[in-house]
Amino acid sequence: MTDLKSSSEDIIIRFKDVYKSFGRHDILKGISFEVPRGQVLGLMGGSGTGKSVTLRHVIGLLKPDSGRVEVEGRNVPDLTKHELADLRKRMGYVFQEGALINWLTVAENLALPLQENTKLSKSEIDDLIAEKLKMVHIPDAGEKLPSEISGGMKKRVGLARALITDPDIILYDEPNAGLDPQIARSINELMREIADQHHATALVVEHRLECIETVCDEVVFLYGGKALVHEKTADFLRPTHPQLIEFLGPEARNA
Ligand SMILES: Nc1ncnc2c1ncn2[C@@H]1O[C@H](COP(=O)(O)OP(=O)(O)OP(=O)(O)O)[C@@H](O)[C@H]1O
């Protein structure tokens, strides 16, 4: 594997020789990588290579068969239910399909995580909602229902909701899915803006190279159940590894 070692001890997410199978289907076969604090790491790989499975280990929705999945130095599978709940409160998760509740307004959707996880007053919650809607450039969307807004706006609301609790870690699962190129571009710029302003550590599962190029500091290529390549984004997009060249196609080498 092409490996990048961080000089910093401040590793927020660490996969160490993680194996995961479903029945006789081996998906992760010794995957190892690290994400230092504040870094945005992309996860790329063919369909079914285990990108979403990897993300779900970080949030404790899946447990590895062996190996360690550490978040801030603690092995996630060893956490108690209570500790896991606390960890999840500090994570933002951006789903493929915004996952908004249709009968609640945008503002009510954003309020939910705060009502569930904090003791903030109504006016403090309102202030936070206004701040996050402004951050994702839709300051006037609060009173709208999800059915009244476009796919791109839904994605922005999904981002605002993931950010509402000021998470230390953000997990993005195909943030460009279902968006036309122009809207995808604006979402990617927004994700980069969030990374620069918010300094959260992030993992991004995405197929589109434009997203990876705009948003990610480094990229891991999953192949054969392992992190086959791990490089800075610019190097990743000028691949030398044969499997990665094949995956990205000639377009990337000319990037
Ligand atoms: N809970 C589960 N039970 C059984 N099989 C599962 C489960 N979750 C994932 N899989 C299988 O693991 C494999 C990897 O799934 P995953 O969703 O991680 O792929 P992916 O790399 O994200 O692919 P895509 O790019 O197509 O979304 C797939 O074959 C999937 O069917």
What does this structure look like?
With 255 residues, the protein is of the alpha/beta class. The protein has a domain of 69 residues. The chain is built from 10 helices and 10 strands. The strands form 2 sheets. It has a 6-stranded mixed β-sheet with strand order 6-7-8-3-9-10, sandwiched between helices. Strands 2-1-4-5 form a 4-stranded antiparallel β-sheet, covered by helices on one side. Strand 9 and strand 10 form a beta hairpin. The longest helix has 18 residues. The mean pLDDT is 89. Bound molecules: adenosine-5'-triphosphate (ATP).
Short description:
With 255 residues, the chain is an alpha/beta fold. It has helices at residues 51-58, 81-89, 106-117, 122-135, 151-163, 181-198, 209-215, 233-236, 242-248, 250-253, and strands at 11-22, 25-36, 40-45, 66-71, 74-75, 91-94, 169-173, 201-205, 218-223, 226-232. It has a domain at 98-166.
